[in-house]
DNA sequence: GGCTGTCGTTGCGCTAGCGCAAACAGGGCT
DNA sequence: AGCCCTGTTTGCGCTAGCGCAACGACAGCC
C-alpha cells in the first residue's frame, strides 16, 4: 500500500457520493477532503489485519475488498465483500480500538481515501451526525453478520451456496451477452467454501450439479449465474421432512 | 413489564457501577438517575422483539436475559446471555433504529432501569464520551458474534457444546458444595441446542456421554460442571485427521 | 510447443450428526 | 397417592457432507 497523488477534486466527488459524508454542508465536505490522502492497494494485499490498532478510516473508491477472519488454526473465513463506494474501518473512530477483521484486496488494484483516526475524531466532534452514522454502520454490519450466523445454523450447504451466489451477483454481477450474470471477481471453489462454511469438494459437486441443470456455468475461478430464479428457489427451499409420508385418504 | 417505584438512591448505585456510565461527574450521574425509571419483567417475558422500534435503553440490574434471534420459520437461535449489571438496547441511541434481536427474561423476575431514546440522546449530547462508549459496546458485540460464527463454521458439535457450557459457568456459575459448578439458570437440552446450532438429541447424547466420564452431572433443565478442565480440553481439541496413519519408520 | 503449477472434478468410503419413535423420569397439582 | 405434563434418554436407520486420492483441464511462462 502506498500513498499517491490524485486531484483533490476527485476526492471531493467520492466523498460527496459516500453514504457516510453525504449531505454535509459544503464547507464540511471540503474539510473532509482536505484531511484525506489517497492510497492504493494491489491484488491479494491486506489493507489491515484483524487485531491491528485501528489507526485509519478509509473510503473504498475503486476495487473490491474481502472481509475475512482468520481462525487460530490459520483457516480463513470470508464474511463478505465490499464494493465502492464504501466506508471501511469506522472502528477507527474509537480511541485505542482494534480492527475486528482483516481486509484483503481482490482486484489488481484498489484505490482508497484514508483518514487517520485523529482527523476522523476531529471531524466527528465537529459534525455530530457522523457519530450517529458511525453507530448505524456498525449496527448494520452486526445485523448482517447475524443473518449469516442464522443461515449457517439452520440452512443446508446447498442453500448457503445458493445464497452466497445470489449475493455475489448483486455485489459484483456483470451482465453477460446471453442473459446470464458473470460474477466479476476471482472466485475459486475454496473461496465459496470459505464463505459458506463448507469444503471445496462440496462446492465443486454442487456447482457441477447446477451446471447440468443449466442454473450456472462455471470455470476456473469464475461463475456465471444463468438462472437466478432457480437459484433463489433453492436458497429459500424449505426441506421437506426426511420421512415425508403421504397422508392417508380419510 | 411494568413500571415500579424504587428509591432513587438504588438507581444511583447501579448506574454508578455500570460500565457505561462509570466515571462520569457526580452531577451527570444524578442527571442520568433522574431521567431513569424502573421496570420489571418476569420469566419468559420478552423485553422487546427484534424489529421493534428501539425506543428504550435499559440497564439490567437484577435477573438475566437471553439474546435470541427468531428465524423466518419460527425456529429460535440463542446468541447469548446477559447478566447484571449490563446495558441493553444501546441501539436506542440511533434515531429510528430497530432492535436487532429479541430479549427474553429467564429468571422469575428481572429488574431494569429504562431511559427513553430522547433522554439517552440528550445525555449523549451532553457527555460525548457516552457516544464513544456506545460504539465500543456495539463493536464488542460484533466481535463476540464473529467468534460464535467462526466456531459454528469450524468446530464440531461436541466442541461447541463444551464451549457453551464453559461460557455459562462464567456467566451463571454457582459453586457447588462438592466442588462442581451449577449453571444457575433454567437450561434445557433444547436451549443448549439452540445455542450451539444442533439438535436436542445430540445435546442429550453428548451430555450422557460426559456424565459417564464424570465431566458433568445433569438433570431436568439443570447442568452441573464437575470437571471444567476436561471440558476446556474438549473445547480446544483439534481433531486428528480422519485417517491418521502412523508415519513409517525410516 | 512443452512444462509447470494451480485449480477443478469425481469416485469412493466413511462418519458425525440428524430425526423419529417409544419409553422413561420427575415435578407439580388435585 | 395418582395423574399429567414437560423434559429427557436412547435404539435405530439414514443421509448429508467430509476428505482423500487420482486424474483432468487450463493458464502462464520459457
Tell me about this structure:
2 copies of one chain form a homodimer. Chain A has 250 residues and is an alpha+beta fold. The first copy, chain A, folds into 2 domains: 2-152, Jelly Rolls (Sandwich); 155-236, Jelly Rolls. Chain A is built from 8 helices and 13 strands. Chain A has helices at 8-17, 26-35, 117-126, 129-154, 157-172, 189-196, 200-212, 228-236, and strands spanning 2-4, 37-42, 46-48, 56-62, 65-70, 76-82, 86-88, 102-105, 109-116, 173-175, 181-183, 216-219, 222-225. The first copy, chain A, has a 5-stranded antiparallel beta sheet with strand order 1-2-9-4-7. The structure holds a DNA duplex (30 and 30 nucleotides).
Summarize the structure.
Chain A has 250 residues and is α+β, with helices and mostly antiparallel strands. Chain A contains eight helices and 13 strands.
Strand content of chain A: 15-25%
- Summarize the amount of helix of chain A as a percent range: 40-55%
**Number of spatially distinct domains of chain A:** 2
Biggest interface and its residues per chain?
Answer: A-B, 35 and 35 residues
Instruction: Kindly state the number of beta strands of chain A.
Output: 13
Unreliable spans of chain A: 242-250
| Biggest sheet record of chain A | 5 strands, antiparallel
First-residue to last-residue Cα separation of chain A: 72 Å
- Specify the number of helices of chain A: 8
Radius of gyration of chain A: 21 Å
CATH C-level class of the largest domain in chain A is: Mainly Beta
Query: At the third CATH level, what is the topology name of the largest domain in chain A?
Result: Jelly Rolls
Average residue pLDDT of chain A: 92
Shape of chain A: elongated
